[in-house]
Amino acid sequence: MKPQKAAKAGGERAGKATILEASRVGKRFGDLVALREVSLSVGAGELRAIIGPNGAGKTTFFNLLSGLFVPTTGRVLFEGRDITRTPAHRRVRLGIARTFQITEIFPELSVYDHLRIGAETANGYGERPWITGAERAIVQRQVEEALARVGLTAKAARLVGELAHGDQRVVEIATALTLRPRLLLLDEPTAGLGDQETAAVVKLVGELHEDDDLTIILIEHDMQVVFNLADRISVLDQGALLAEGAPAEIAANPAVQEAYLGKTA
Amino acid sequence: MSGKARNLALLAAIWATLVLAPFWMPLVGGYTALGARVLVLALAAMSVNFLLGFTGVLSFGHAAYFGLGAYGAGFALKFLAKSTPLSLVCGMLLGGLAGALLGSLIVRRRGVYFAMVTIAFGQVLYYVAFQWSSLTGGDDGLRGFSRQPLDFGFASIDILSNETAFYFFVLACFALAVAVMGYILQSPFGRTMIAIRENERRARFLGIAIERHIWIAFSLSCFFMGFAGALYALVNNFADPRGLHYSQSGDFVIMAVMGGMRNFWGPLLGAAVFVALQDYLSSLTVNWMSFVGLLFVLVVLFFPRGLLGFARPKASA
User: Fold this and answer.
1) Fewer CB within 10 A of the terminal residue: chain A, N end or C end?
2) Residue B189 and residue A128: Cβ atoms within 8 Å?
3) Partner-chain contact A117 B209, CB within 8 Å
């Protein structure tokens, strides 16, 4: 089982279908150009990291992919379908889930209820005032699976707002998993975490990619995390795509070293 | 588990108090009609709180749908048929449909802007009721109707002159409405309301159509409001433009916040305290409202979660 998966992960870079394609997307806020004509395509099953200095436009790019903003120019295709102007909640139904750089949670709910809302919405139950016993059982199974997947089963009854920051980030990811996404956008999932917590989140993201074959786009500042996890890396600088390639290529790219790595290393 | 037991005990205490009210109220200087008033205003405050406490949306013009409910019931009794159940349905529909219509125009507003627009719509409806004297009786209110006996075919119950029977009728209506409200809140839809209250952005990125859900919650709350207003018309055999006024909306918000808006039963306690104080203090001073206001300030300062706020959800693990 394992070697097969690994072989698949190795081969997909060359040939697998494109799941997401951004073509020349740009965003301006008044006079400020946050993102200029970025084109990027991500293959199914790929783990893509997006790096770049602060203000490079990484989160803006995520907001365009997930539907928080509509781009000023360009198009976004998901599984071949134009979603440039699709409202955010409908993109979720199409299979795009995201987390946020600053934790966005339901603080007064239990971990279980937090995930339950995700599962119920994904199943299409969220708009109605009833739920059958069979549906309740389905939701329960999905929530328990997601909890077990991320190792939060023991904390299911805790209030999310009372958890440690690291656990809250994992709750966010677990809730995204209940949506059964085909593309997961993670905006700095290790931001503000200690070493141990970071290691746990990195391990989880790696497993989701390797074992579940989930396509992930990851914004990350921690270079060690990026080079460990990513199949490919895209570098944004001042709102434009500076470079793209396998981790080794990016590390060796002089322009990247100049713009980004040089400053930190 | 202990939380569940405590909830059951609270429920039992609430219903025992309500069912036995005609027997204990006279002992503390109350009277049965006051009990009916508490129930109706509590239902209205709970409807406001359905939106405020469980969707996180503050409407400051909800009395409009309460007042419309009262007129709807009055019109039905006066012009349609002498039937108490029909009047309740008509009042609920008038309040609810007006709310659904106006709600569709304002669900994109948030926070203060939402509250301001709800006040504006409420005041528009207030002035319509106030000015359209030929239909509504204007400042004098709508008179010339009274609640009718409940006719079951084989038996009929006089709820007009028998105060106790009427109290139990109002209690049954209250129980029905509250049961529906509770059922909705415990459903998948109810959980999406709470998700919106907790974090709108997170909710949107779980795939919840925020505006649509807020609109549905707003409309449902207006149907409950219309139902409460219709009951109020039956309590008084009278409908009044002041029932639509924004100061009435403010009273409902005060009841909800004072009782505890994160608790389902908070507004019931808030309404009971409000009505009891109003009844008692207004016999002593015309400035009774300043004492209610003082209490409100104290509650907000020292019990920010309201009088029933101690019953907050606790982690059990």
Assistant:
1) N
2) yes
3) no
Distance CA B225, CA B104 (A): 17
Burial class from Cβ neighbours inside 10 Å (0-12, 13-18, 19+) for residue B161 reads exposed
In a domain, B296, yes or no: no
- Number of domain units in chain B: 1
Assess contact for B313 and A108: CB atoms under 8 A. Answer: yes
User: Is B208 close to A126, i.e. CB distance below 8 A?
Assistant: yes
Local structure of residue A16 (DSSP, 8 states):
P
Size of interface A-B (CB pairs under 8 A): 102
Distance from CA of B182 to the nearest CA of A (A): 10
CA distance B110 to B117: 10
Answer whether residue B263 is part of any domain.
Answer: no
Return the residue in A98, A100, A108, A173 with the most chain B beta carbons within 10 A, the one to mutate for interface testing.
A108
Residue A62, min C-alpha distance to chain B (Å): 12
Write the pLDDT tens digit of every residue in B162-180: 889 999 999 999 999 999 9
Ordered by start, the domain boundaries in chain A are 2-95+181-264, 107-180
Q: Which residues of A touch B208 (CB under 8 A)?
A: 89, 121, 126
Torsion (CA) B166, B169, B170, B172 in degrees, nearest 10: 160
CB-based contact, B108 to chain A, within 8 Å: no
Each residue's pLDDT tens digit, B204-252: 999 999 999 999 999 999 999 999 999 999 999 999 999 999 999 999 9
User: pTM, whole model, 2 decimals?
Assistant: 0.91
pLDDT greater than 70 at residue B61: yes
CATH of A2-95+181-264, one of 3.40.50.300, 3.40.50.720, 3.10.450.50, 3.40.50.11030: 3.40.50.300
Q: Is residue B94 part of a domain?
A: yes
Q: Is some CB atom of chain A closer than 8 A to the CB atom of B186?
A: no
- Please name the residue that has the structure tokens 């608790």: B263
Q: Which residues of A touch B201 (CB under 8 A)?
A: 100, 104
Nearest to B317 among A92, A125, A157 (CB): A157
8 A C-beta contact, residue A149 and residue A174: yes
Closest residue of chain B to A66, computed from CA coordinates? B205
Question: What is the per-residue burial (b if ≥16 Cβ within 10 Å, else e) of A87-109?
Answer: ebbebbebbbbbbbbebbbbebb
Q: Is A52 exposed, middle or buried (0-12, 13-18, 19+ CB in 10 A)?
A: buried
**Contact criterion met (CB < 8 Å) for B198 and A109:** yes
| A38 beta partners | A25
Provide the residue range defining the domain that includes B51: 32-244
How far does the CA of residue A11 sit from the closest CA of chain B (Å)?
A: 32
Task: Return the structure tokens found at B79.
Answer: 């012009």
| pLDDT range class, residue B30, cuts 50, 70, 90 | confident
Q: Does B210 touch chain A (CB under 8 A)?
A: yes
Smallest Cβ–Cβ distance between B202 and the set A104, A130, A154 belongs to A104
Q: Do A121 and B189 touch (CB under 8 A)?
A: no
CA distance B182 to B43: 12
| Distance separating alpha carbons of residues A56 and B216, to the nearest angstrom | 40
Q: What are the CA-CA distances from residue B34 to residues B22, B121, B176, B227 (Å)?
A: 10, 30, 20, 19
Is residue B314, in this structure, part of any structural domain at all? no
B110 token code pair: 């948030």
